Protein 1
Amino acid sequence: MSNQKLKTAVLPVAGLGSRFLPITKSIPKEMLPIIDKPLIQFAIEEAIEAGIEKIVFVTSHTKKAIENYFSINSELEKRLIQSNKENLVEKIHPKYLDKVEFSYVFQEEPNGLGHAILQAKEHVDDEFFGVILADDLLMYEIGCLSQLSNIHHENNSSVIGVFAADPEKISNYGVIDGVLDGNSYKLNNIIEKPKAEEAPSNLAVFGRYILSKEIFNHLENTNAGVNGEIQLTDAIKSLIEKDTVRAIEIMGKRFDCGSKEGYISAIINRSHSIEKYKDALKKID
Ligand code: UTP
């Protein structure tokens, strides 16, 4: 059992978002709205639900929108109060945001997810930290990081979220090779974007991780892999050789909002859960 609370979450948001061009030319992918709330806010809410106190964004100099979104806009708050719209003040500045500390580190070049995480090294003090990729969205009563956190506290190990992927899509993901051990898998290996016939299982990585701080040493020694990027998967593969890494199958509805299909599905799904939109949706052919 680990008694140490999971306090820090790293949120990499420095990717190019090329699948969503042209919108991502000026709006970060993580700011895309699921109706009225950006993906990044779902991620922050999930982190806070899991007890996170410190959020480290790995961002790029071209992505000021995220920093602006989480800063206080006193002028707008004042105007809303003056026009009797106090209820909207809580919307633009939810109280739960005051419970967390935000910091921003920069990834100068989009050299891959592994490289992005490495930039957060100096901001992680504890033995373990969480990672949330905001474009992987989960809709469920228990947040994804909380689901991982339960396994982490039981085993005091790194934990990765996985899901059973369609066989024809398996080569889009990081794929684990693991054995079921209690209510989680103990990993023997992990492979980034394997060919379908070489995939060790159908269990693909969803963008949630609780990682031992040791991962930074492995990232420092990881060479560019698939797509010429420093892959987090390759560093985890090297971590597995030294340390226990576990995986759990995530419960809930998953949306890969880094793809247009997943993004559209997430919007439709959220619309169905909001009473006042249900009738309007029925009228659409
Ligand atoms: P993706 O693999 O989805 O890449 O990144 P991307 O650049 O965002 O999007 P596409 O593939 O070009 O359309 C997964 C997560 O890792 C972050 C992204 O911001 C996203 O949250 N990331 C990726 C970085 O922070 N830096 C990188 O160099 C790459």
Protein 2
Amino acid sequence: MLAETIIKQLVAIVGEPRLLLGDDDLKRFGIDRTTLWTPAPSAVLLPGSVAEVQAIVRLANEHNLAVVPSGGRTGLSGGAVAKDGELVVAMDRLNSVLDFNPMDRTVTVGAGMITAQLQDFAEQQGLFYPVDFASTGSSQIGGNIATNAGGIKVIKYGMTRNWVAGLKVVTGNGDVLELNKGLAKNNTGYDLRHLFIGSEGTLGLICEATIQLTRPPLESSVMVLGVADFPAIMDVLRCFSTDIDLSAFEFFSQQALEKVTAHRGHPKPFETEAPFYALLEFENSSEAVLEQAMAIFETCVESGWVLDGVLSQSLSQASNLWKLREDISETLWHWKPYKNDISVRVSRMPEFLREVDELVARQYPDFEVVWYGHIGDGNLHLNILKPETLEVAQFHAKCVNVSSEIGQLLAKYEGSVSAEHGVGLLKKDYLHYSRSAEEMAMMRSIKRAFDANGILNPGKVFDELS
Ligand code: 2HG
Ligand code: ZN
């Protein structure tokens, strides 16, 4: 419960209607897509300017109140969860286009802008914002930056980080920083902008972002291929990416396809069943590219890697094929899955896949395991489905044990315990498998520099300052 005097001061900053204290609002704003924690913030604030954000942070420092920055709350790691009486600062109202520069091809937007609106804005200007994933309809650009969101086009366009040309942030200490100011070249010492990208709200609140846009792609073709086994997926990737500039290379298992077709009513890509499917996309720039793709397809079939395949013949067919991959995550929520979001270097993927496959078969013999992910980026989303007979807590306890083994395997392969969803609350116990003790100590020092009192998103990514 917040003291009456603090409530009054918060109202003085944001105005009465922008301070939410009702149970429904506290529940709604205190959680992301995870289901493991009970939301319990003490208040939700909806600031309308950078100055208001700064005033909130200063007040929070004065009274030692924890602050959780909140975007579209589509996160999968508990990074935006407020479970301990924190103040949630939701960026929803900072959602407009502040500046557009056609010469630089940059747009400056409020952090609360929905990703799909940014994509639409770019399109209206004849440009393109290439970071794309299933939750673009509700995720916000500030949250994407705070988690360095990836998605389905990383193989060609990289992560959110590549598209951030400038940031305006309020640090945990209450200072306003304008970082990089849209410059393409700027070698003036440490690039603090990059510290905030992927910091999961632990260093500051991202209020505004200058985003680089690019030229739109040509019409793209999509292929879905039925693949004989795990190793063959990598052979197929090697063959296609040697000669074709791929904009996506995704994969999913037969179980994933079964679930998504049964629950969403999407038609199967073809009759032949295969243990795995690869979905690849490329710009259909000439007849020659299409012919080359077909020739590579033939080679893959002759080599026994590919069992069947389909090439989109229209934009609507391409978009329907994409649904088979993009709708998997949402479909699987039905089973309250235990998620893994792991990566290794693409070159180590075949070996790693073999070992992780063995580990999963040994450790989860009774659980249904669904494989999918951005295989072209070395990123696997291994989802373990909860059997109906197990309570969530019991199921989670069993999976947690296996996570340590996966962590050890990742350490061996020098991989990452979080390829794109971030660490949040969910993966902080496994961070040490990917980061050395020296790196963790350095991260804590950086946190102290920007947030001396540790008020910003405490307990996320790593625990207390030590
Ligand atoms: C995807 O690639 C998302 O579909 C979600 O990153 C992955 O839900 C997941 O495990
Ligand atoms: Zn993903």
